[in-house]
Amino acid sequence: MGDVRRRGVVALAVTGLVAPLTVALGAAPAQAASCSTQTGPYQKQVEKFLGLSVDGRQSAADCKVIKAFQTKHGITPNAGYAGPVTWGVMDLMTRQKAVGNNPNKAGKCPVNKGRIACVNLTLQLSWIQDGNRLVYGPVPVRTGRNGYETRTGLKKIYWRNIDHVSTIYNVPMPYSQFFDGGQAFHSVGVSMWNPPGSHGCVNMTKTAAQKYWSLLKKGDDVFVYGRKPGT
Q1: Which Pfam families match (predicted)?
Q2: pTM for the whole thing?
Q3: What is the pLDDT of residues 147-162, one digit of tens each?
Q4: What separation, in Å, do the N-terminal and C-terminal C-alpha atoms of the chain show?
């Protein structure tokens, strides 16, 4: 992220490599550079998630598929080992999918504010609603890692910059919509499930960030709640 200078306030924006969950890394297999032959502690769960034969024993075929999943989502080491980070990402994906089209079922995001962007840190999901009506989403997001948590509470979008570039990290932050100091919605070019998380911003895919840009405006409410796993 970068410095956002507005009304004399220096807002340190947040771009880091983010992931929708942060779980303890646990023990990693010794042969990180090659495909692991070790059976991981979450072998059966990972096999089931990936549609593999569920026997709880690592095989060369298992390792190839697990490694491909890890590579796609930036999970390191990507050695095909069925460890806690890999299973944590898969478990989060499953819980996100279970939400369906009713992300505010528990009523945690205010329905008396008109149009509002909601961020559920626990499930790493965001959506836009208008009263009780779902306008867009839910979509997976990547929020702040441990030590750089995305701050909770009711906020408002105060500044938008479609071509923002971080002056701290010297990286682009397209479709930035700032709602709390340097914390903003913006797109990133990595997987939404890429551990460990951002430096505080709510990272989105380009498609989702473009949609948020078209649906939201300065002064719109943002409500952030819950707690990201691992923070």
Answers
A1: YkuD (PF03734)
A2: 0.85
A3: 999 999 999 999 999 9
A4: 20
